[in-house]
Amino acid sequence: MSTKDTVLVLFEKNKGFFISGERIAEELNISRTAVWKAVKKLQSEGYEIKAVTNRGYCLDKESDVLTERGIRSNLQDYCKDLRPEVFVRVDSTNTKCIEKAEKGEPEGYVAIAGSQSAGRGRRGKAFFSPAESGIYMSILLRPVGLTENQVLHFTTMAAAAVSEAIESVSGKKADIKWVNDIFIDGKKVCGILSEASYGVQTGKLEYVIVGIGVNAYEPSGGFPSSIADVAGKVFDEPSAGLKNRLAAEILNRFMAYYEHLPETPYSEEYIRRSVVTGKDVTVHKGSEMIRAHVLGIDQEFGLKVRYEDGSVEVLRSGEISIRI
Domain boundary at 239, 256, 272, which? Predict the structure, then answer.
């Protein structure tokens, strides 16, 4: 265990109380300089550690920072081979995973960040990823023997897993807006972006990246005006360890489903949580915006809609909008 991690363990045992640098140095048998460097490193990673002259250091008892240790401690045994790497800030966790995948990284790598400078949503849209309030993660997978249609199911599988995880940790009911958004009380709290790569010469699936962005808390200063009417959060108040618990539970639920591919035991869960079934929506087709009524979602996750002219279509991909 590194000096930084050893110091962090001591802080966590004394969370909310000041510990002098001298006491830390004595207990851990390290120099005061090493203590100072460890504290600075932890602060740079987002830990809220106060430093007060003649009192020492104090880790805020309500500090809720994503950490590899915190996530691993909440993983189920069948997820112990996952390799989460936590970053304070990245351009995009999907991009980080793609870079790893292209260099041959095996399945099971998970990039997790406290913020993103260039988060990406579907259809090239930017994904708002502020510091301290969200969980942004991407999972690298290398599935074998799946058809192209089955690969499209990773987004729906993630949506079911995230919804279950949110309910388990927060106690709040989570709904799904086809195809990739999670809503609580009519507000979007999560978006999902799955990307697949195929060999140029072989045409075979090489890897899949499943990106998940969750608004754990409302960001400082609130959401931008452009999304303030639609954006929501999972938790009402910050509390130590919540983000680690939620991140781990998402991985637990997702990997439990992933183990059963190509079966889709999550299909009924996804369909049951649909917030658009029986509602009027707007279907986006290029530059066209077409009004339609949602008849339901089939077992292949296609959205069955009836247009105003009476025609019926099953959408296998695309985008819809609805006022919830």
Answer: 272
The residue among 254, 209, 216, 246 whose CA lies nearest residue 232 is 216
Shared domain check, 151 and 48: no
Do 312 and 287 share a domain, yes or no? Answer: yes
85's CB contacts (< 8 A; 6+ apart) are 68, 109, 110, 111, 112
**Domain count of the fold of the chain:** 3
- Residue 267 phi/psi, 5-degree rounding, is -60, -45
C-alpha to C-alpha distance for 295 and 314, rounded to whole angstroms: 10
Distance, C-alpha 312 to centroid of its chain? 34
Q: How many CB atoms lie within 10 A of CB 291?
A: 11
* CATH number for 208: 3.30.930.10
**Residue 200, C-beta contacts closer than 8 angstroms, at least 6 positions apart:** none
Residue 30 shares a structural domain with residue 129:
no
- 3-class SS at 208? strand
- CATH assignment at residue 292: 2.30.30.100
The position carrying tokens 């296609």 is: 302
What pLDDT sits at residue 121?
65
Same-domain pairing of 87 and 125: yes
What is the rounded average pLDDT of the residues 186-196? 94
Per-residue pLDDT, 220: 82
Shared domain check, 88 and 46: no
Q: Report pLDDT digits (tens) over 120-129.
A: 766 556 677 7
Instruction: Provide the strand spans (E) within the chain.
Output: 49-52, 56-59, 83-87, 109-113, 134-141, 175-177, 181-184, 187-198, 205-215, 280-285, 288-297, 303-307, 312-315, 319-321
Please tell me whether residues 14 and 158 are part of one structural domain: no
